[in-house]
Design a protein that fits this description.
This protein has nine helices and 13 strands. The protein is α+β, with helices and mostly antiparallel strands and 319 residues long. A hairpin with a 2-residue loop joins strand 2 and strand 3.
């Protein structure tokens, strides 16, 4: 489905306004306060891109990953509770006043971030709302982050650890980390189409340079839903034909290989419940080149399959 930013913004803003005001004894006053917050922070979003200052400004990083995909993985935000992200920051409502004060104190020590206690309640009457904003985030007329800033932060975060990288992630693999959520093919509530197109061009140029290592293809979202379904069904149907007769398949996994369109396909199949009603099937080519799994119901000759993952050129052989 095509991404429509205006519709997504209206839906999310309405949901979040209700979330923070519906349980208050004075919901009208709460809504007025929430509207003031939104005037400062912009549209509500499901999650921020990993280059956003809210995620990159805090000095403590997750030990297992260079980038923090969520504020919840950063120690500085540990006191946060009942939290919603916005284009310019976050609104959080811990029940403990001490936690709220600690959050304000620690965030205000980070360059580029500002936190403050709000004058009235939000979420619940006994919560202590805190607004956290990234000072440097400026918005375009459409409510997204100013293009030059977004591009600079994206490039800085992308190349920062290039020398330690093992593989180059494609646009389709990391699009949600780059655009934030909700998003479309190249835009979101945080990044407009102009910015998103240039982010993709920059990433593909960097990947082609080899600075991150070999390109890792996994997501096949560049293909239509119809094509992804056709790929999955082609592979699973071929695996079922190769495994026939199915009454010889038991509830213990059976593994074998077969050839299809010049490729060696590895299959794992089993009778899920041992009653011939449902068969679990997984088909893969290479270690990570192409993979799909699903279920087959012989009574109705029905397939349920996941989206395939792997390399685009290989996947297109099975459309």
């Amino acid at each position: 489905m095509e991404f429509r930013a205006n519709q997504a913004a209206v839906r999310l803003n309405s949901q979040v306004a209700s979330y923070f005001t519906s349980n208050l004894s004075d919901s009208a006053a709460g809504l007025e306060l929430f509207n003031e917050v939104q005037d400062r922070l912009g549209n509500a979003v499901d999650c921020l891109p990993d280059w956003h200052p809210i995620l990159t400004a805090p000095p403590e990083r997750p030990q297992h990953h260079w980038h923090a995909p969520s504020y919840s993985e950063l120690p500085i935000y540990a006191p946060c509770d009942h939290t919603q992200e916005f284009v310019r920051g976050m609104l959080t409502c811990p029940y403990s006043e001490a936690d709220a004060d600690q959050l304000v104190e620690t965030v205000n020590q980070v360059k580029g971030l500002n936190a403050e206690r709000l004058s009235g309640p939000l979420y619940m009457d006994n919560a202590f709302p805190v607004l956290i904003e990234a000072w440097e985030v400026e918005l375009e007329a459409d409510g997204t982050i100013r293009s030059r800033d977004a591009l600079a932060w994206f490039v800085q975060a992308t190349v920062e650890h290039a020398r330690e990288a093992k593989v180059a992630e494609t646009w389709w693999n990391i699009r949600y980390l780059t655009l934030g959520k909700p998003h479309g093919a190249r835009s979101s509530l945080l990044v407009n189409d102009y910015t998103g197109r240039h982010m993709r061009k920059i990433l593909e140029t960097l990947n082609d340079s080899g600075m991150f290592g070999p390109i890792k293809e996994m997501s096949l979202d560049m293909l239509s839903e119809r094509k992804r379904s056709a790929i999955a069904r082609t592979l699973i149907r071929a695996a079922l034909d190769a495994a026939a007769p199915l009454d010889s398949v038991t509830d213990e996994s059976r593994e074998f290989v077969f050839e299809l369109r010049g490729e060696t396909c590895n299959v794992r199949i089993r009778d899920t419940w041992g009653d011939g009603m449902e068969y679990s099937v997984r088909v893969s080519i290479g270690e990570f080149d192409l993979s799909v799994s699903g279920f087959y119901y012989p009574k109705d000759d029905k397939l349920q399959q996941t989206d395939p993952t792997g390399k685009q050129k290989l996947a297109e052989k099975f459309i």
